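Journal club prep — side note

Before the paper discussion, L.F. wants everyone to see what a predicted structure for a comparable chain looks like in token form. Sequence:
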Amino acid sequence: MNTYLKNKFVLDRLVKKTMEKVQTCPIKTEKSLAVLPKLKEWIQSQTFTFSNSKKTLLCEMVQQRSDFGKEKYGTRLQSFNGRDSELDVQQELADGLQYLFQMKMEGKSIGPETVALFEGMFALMESMLLHK
């Protein structure tokens, strides 16, 4: 199977999965742990070529989103919460792509803070994917 057909097959399965699966509300289990403190610790421990100020920016951003989640849902993100975390990532990334394209359609440029955030997030995600 050539690369195009293989990638198309994977994407077709992904789209079907994201369209069909209904996520449950998060639950707390005996294995649940708070994600935020461990994530912030991990971010600070990474040895990337970008500056400590970029690491601080990323930590502040995830802290703000965690605070928002606590306010909106009454709890912060926990591991082992009964949800399909891979599906959550896929859906959130697809949403982010739509927001970026909305900016393009509206003729807006991406500001330096957003560029810095993307650079840091992609470096961290790449590290997670390559160094499990």
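L.F.'s comment for the group: The radius of gyration is 17 Å. Keep this in mind when we get to the figures.
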